[in-house]
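Ligand-bound model needed. adenosine-5'-triphosphate.
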Amino acid sequence: SGGGAASPSAAATAVPSVASVAPSTAASPSAAASPSAAAASASPIPGGLLDTVLQRGTLVVSTDPNYAPQSVKNPDGTFSGFDIDVATEVAKRLGVKVQFVTPDWTLITAGNWSKRWDASVGSMTITADRQKVLDFSPPYYYTPAQMTASKNSGITTMDGFAGKTICAGASTTYLDWLQGKKLDFGTLSPTTTPPAGIKTVSLKTDADCPQTWAAGRNDFQGWLSSSTTVDGAIAAGMPVVKVGDPVYFEPLAIAVDKSGPVDTDFVAALKTIVDGMHADGTLTQLSMKWFKADLTQGP
Amino acid sequence: MAMGVGGPGLIGRVSAEDGFRLAHPDVIVAQIAASRARAGLRFRMIFVLTWIVLVGGLAAALAESGKVDPSFIAKWGPFILQGIPVTLFVSVCSIVLAVVFALFGALGRLSRNPPIYAIATLYVSLVRGTPLIVQIIFVYLALPQFGIVLDALTGGILALSFNYGAYLTEIFRAGVEAIPRGQREAAQALGMTERSIMRRVILPQAIRIVIPAIGNDFISMTKDSALVSLVTIQEVFWRAQNAGTQSFRTFEALMIAAMVYWVMTIVFSLGQERLEKRMAEGDVRL
Amino acid sequence: MAMGVGGPGLIGRVSAEDGFRLAHPDVIVAQIAASRARAGLRFRMIFVLTWIVLVGGLAAALAESGKVDPSFIAKWGPFILQGIPVTLFVSVCSIVLAVVFALFGALGRLSRNPPIYAIATLYVSLVRGTPLIVQIIFVYLALPQFGIVLDALTGGILALSFNYGAYLTEIFRAGVEAIPRGQREAAQALGMTERSIMRRVILPQAIRIVIPAIGNDFISMTKDSALVSLVTIQEVFWRAQNAGTQSFRTFEALMIAAMVYWVMTIVFSLGQERLEKRMAEGDVRL
Amino acid sequence: MDPIPVSADHHDPYAKPGTLTPAGAEPVVRAIDLQKFYGSNHVLRGVTMEVFPSETVCLIGKSGSGKSTLLRCINFLEEPTVGFIEVDGLRVAADPLRPRNRQHQEQIRQIRLRAQMVFQEFNLFPHMKVIDNLVEGPIRVKGLSRDQAIATAEKYLDKVGLAEKRDEYPGRLSGGQKQRVAIARALTMEPKVLLFDEPTSALDPTLVGEVINVMEELAHEGATMIVVTHEMAFAREAADRVYFIEGGTFVEVGPPDQVIESPRDPRTREFLARTFGKAHVPSADTDTALPSDADTRATQVRLKSQWSPGSQGATSYGPVGHRNEPG
Amino acid sequence: MDPIPVSADHHDPYAKPGTLTPAGAEPVVRAIDLQKFYGSNHVLRGVTMEVFPSETVCLIGKSGSGKSTLLRCINFLEEPTVGFIEVDGLRVAADPLRPRNRQHQEQIRQIRLRAQMVFQEFNLFPHMKVIDNLVEGPIRVKGLSRDQAIATAEKYLDKVGLAEKRDEYPGRLSGGQKQRVAIARALTMEPKVLLFDEPTSALDPTLVGEVINVMEELAHEGATMIVVTHEMAFAREAADRVYFIEGGTFVEVGPPDQVIESPRDPRTREFLARTFGKAHVPSADTDTALPSDADTRATQVRLKSQWSPGSQGATSYGPVGHRNEPG
Ligand SMILES: Nc1ncnc2c1ncn2[C@@H]1O[C@H](COP(=O)(O)OP(=O)(O)OP(=O)(O)O)[C@@H](O)[C@H]1O
Ligand SMILES: Nc1ncnc2c1ncn2[C@@H]1O[C@H](COP(=O)(O)OP(=O)(O)OP(=O)(O)O)[C@@H](O)[C@H]1O
Ligand SMILES: [Mg+2]
Ligand SMILES: [Mg+2]
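Prediction:
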């Protein structure tokens, strides 16, 4: 699941808006490998996803700009954020332009994109369930899932949540974990279990939870989200306190629709590009820029 | 001599000696009635058949194509159906509360006291001028700012009824204005006070005019209550979305939800039709 | 001799020699008119004052309480307002398409051909029986299953217009049925065919009856278009939610959105009133 | 038009106690120098009318001449522009410039319950049974107990011959029955004067008779009545005085055998000719005048001179009790 | 009731060519053994009627006697249950059990455009100007060019004296003007026969005259007309034959001076007495009968005997052109 928030000032750089397309200006260091390392290498499968993208010359990327600092739509209509920079760099290395669309998060995770967009560069957690409908690149970074409590609940330890109600965004892995479902992240699968006897509620997006407290409601006492979002909320003055260490780490990757055109070559190309970005420090640099921490190496 | 079409109608018999002999009037009446009944039956049968072909065909096509997973329906159907009592509870409470809002709203809109009229008009204008979805989230987030913290269910019901109250306000007002002027005049001529006239003469008649509209709004309400899913109320739509996203089968889940709502509205519409018929037949004619 | 209240009205003067002398009729008329105008003006002033006190007071209270951040409005206001053209575009396209749907729907509902009637009835029943939010997501997810992939905007417009088309279908049908039977008979008596009668006599009259309803539906549409935000259309509500979530200020963002919708509906309502007045004054009386 | 003098002491020059009026009685209704404007439309241009107890006066005139307006000003369903209304000694002056204050409103209510109106369109309350229509006023307005009110109501329902319709809803009654219930409703208030505004105009011609019969009965029993009507037969038979109004002023006033049978004013004559056909143009011998529409109905009506309490004409309207016999 | 023999060759025993009928002409309209049931309500019980060219026949009878039904069966606005309709040689048999097939529908359309109807309620198209009301039929139904249609329309609009209302909308016309436009609309179709269903019943009494004048004019110019009417003056003056219908059968048929002036059947006599007052009861000298409602209007109408082309009565209805003069 994606999730992160920061003050709008995090949107330091302007990135082209939905319709317009341009190479990344800020994100890509000179160390970037020569463009289209993967794209040029093998001839794409005719009619496949890679073929389609290269033919079109544009990579259409879905993003949910409700998650600062991963993805933000600025007041001027442009996008910015970690995911945006990653997507822009990926497109650059594919040798195509990038274009963003903004479907609802539940629609992205549901699969069956009907070729409306090519890939989701949206901090999506690789789960076994999602792998039934989506194909994933290797993780491009890992976010810690952070438990929080409302300031006036007085909760300071994980045990304090026992029997309380905890909020999470709809269709997130956080909600699944809280509801006791086994999260299958492969080697990174969490070993922790949620506090005993908790109840859950879900709001449309992660950021709705702390706002409910800020509004004065106390329908729930805890909130589970990515530490990046939590940091953003705290920075925005939400009455939130972190409780305990991260409960697990999520491997976040680029996703592609299984039901779409053949994508094996495209996924292979993604692997090459992501591995390259790890290797040449591009991802670390972007992580430091947006998160003030290096989240690209995992727990 | 005359060109033209058609022989005599079928009702009768032709004999050699006196040409055409007409059937007895009763026979004619019966034959025409039978022919009408046949035509009506045929119409209804084709109608039902068309529905079966369309709905059934669509279902079959989906099932065949493998796009729809029957095991999903078996697994999640009951979970979604459990939302029905919640949907109904929310709708019933909201319509009752909406009628209360509307009663006061309508009295305000009919008032000649300018502040009262202004307040009622602002209520109607604001509520009818903004999307329900905004209102629902707004009630959820705004009231607590003023120290009023309602649980989600109460808040959702309040938002829905506040919204429908505004629409019903105008319906009630129109209902009151539809009462012939003579009714008010007759009551005035008896020497009744304005209050009595409203309470004893105008409102009882207006309410009867307005009952069908309340019924319609109740039916809409069952559907619009889907929006309170946004504030964590686990009614049919919320459950469908939830089931859908969990199992990556939003399409099937929504289909089930749609069917649930469809059946509910059909049942309620039938109920309303019967109610209206009963009212029309009743002793009290307006 | 007589007990009672009040002296003669104020219109005239009392003189010593002949008691009360009445003013000239023109003076009476003018005095009454002036008194009426004064009362009307006073009413309107108190009305406006009440609105200002209520709306302004609320705004001031919020600003004072520190719950509302003016810098947020300054920063994100323009971003949200940029959704207005999208909202309008979606609404206009949808209402136009809805009228087309409704035209065919109404012809179907009036048809005596059973399959056509059945299809039109199914359309109306299904669409009016399920929540718009379900329909919007459904169109988005279901059509691609049959290989029809529409971009989000087209899909959203289609869903909205399909929905409103069903409601308008029934309004159109009622409009056609409101045309006096004599109109059809007169056209039949002239020897016109059923097609001509519909096209030349019934529909042109029905459409004029139905225009106010289309106007109302357009105004509702601007609000219901908020729901197409779910399928990625960046209209007012989408932008408001987005701005709100990013900066953890959903409450303020929704307040801005609500104001935008409110102003839009007020403007459109005024436009519609003028249109209706113009129609009522026009040469063509129905 | 020059200013008209208005004085609370103006008197109706034509008013004189009727045949049934107790000696020395004061008028029950006085409308003094009454004027009414609708916007700039000068509908009543100063009319003065006095009605004594037990009198029946008829108001006739063309459509739009102001008959209904005058009647509706008397019980303040319309606010008069200039002049005075006095009912049963209660006097209220016209006051069109201000809303009425509480004291005025109460006075007007008192006038209304003394001057009960019967409408052309009946205006029964459709959601109440007949009996509830009748007791509504007495209970809410006069503060009677329900039992008292029902007793009174039943008496008058019986009087109009509809005792058996007590628990019917108005929707189930014929037009004539509705109007008789409306009359009973007015009577149940036991008013000082009854105002009738074309009580038979909305009725099927075959139903006019039953209502006219009830009204005649009332007139002959000494009820005080002001009746706007086009039923000349009724006016001729039951009226003590006929007012012919045109353009908002009284053009001719007098007993029916003058105003209807031999009108002096050409406008009255024209009105009668136009409205009732030439058969109504005065002729020396009324009996030989040929029957017309209106006269066909008139056969159901007994002439005042022939009338005696308890006698029933050829057309009866059911059981009718008789109140106080006029002396 | 026993089976009635029905035969396509039945003839109207009363029908005979009218005063203006060309020699040797066949009937334009024949309704043969016509019966009509509404559900089990037996409204027409076998009527046979033949109308020759240039004849005017009037249909009179009580409300509910089946007058409108007969007229509406002739142009198939109602489907007859039994019998035949023949208009201008086109014959269509009743066929109530099946929907009409295409061929039948076309035949019926042909009959309709030959037998044009004028309705009580005018039924002008309110969204079209007067001229468009008139050309709609000719253009859509007869396939005329717009120019041709307008020329014809203007001719007939002029005939009914409303040339200057050409570009008005019907909403701006008086009732009488509306009905004259409706007549012009029917005439513009140049039909073989005109059917009038109480064309003056929806009119203010003061407007009846102008419509009657137009109809008289048409009758005298040799138009073939079947007229349902309560205007006895018109029937008396313009009709070649009067059919009195009661309970769905013709009770009395004959020239107006027989059926109206001296009816033989007691039912006819009762109808005339009840509907038109006693003034209509036959009397030896019509001129001395006292004027009544209907007669007041009749003064606007010229008697057939006095009528000559081009002459204008006391009340004219504007410029009127005259078609073919009857020989
Ligand atoms: N509420 C009103 N507002 C404005 N004008 C009115 C109103 N009521 C009546 N008038 C006008 O006052 C005039 C007199 O009306 P009124 O009803 O008193 O006539 P009337 O003599 O009762 O006629 P009718 O026989 O048609 O009932 C008419 O010109 C009418 O148009
Ligand atoms: N469409 C219909 N459906 C059922 N019954 C009808 C219909 N039209 C007429 N009738 C019945 O047929 C009978 C004759 O009606 P019709 O209209 O022919 O009478 P009419 O002689 O024209 O009377 P009027 O003078 O009132 O116009 C009446 O009893 C009427 O109730
Ligand atoms: Mg009146
Ligand atoms: Mg008729």
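Chain E has one domain: 29-94+102-304.
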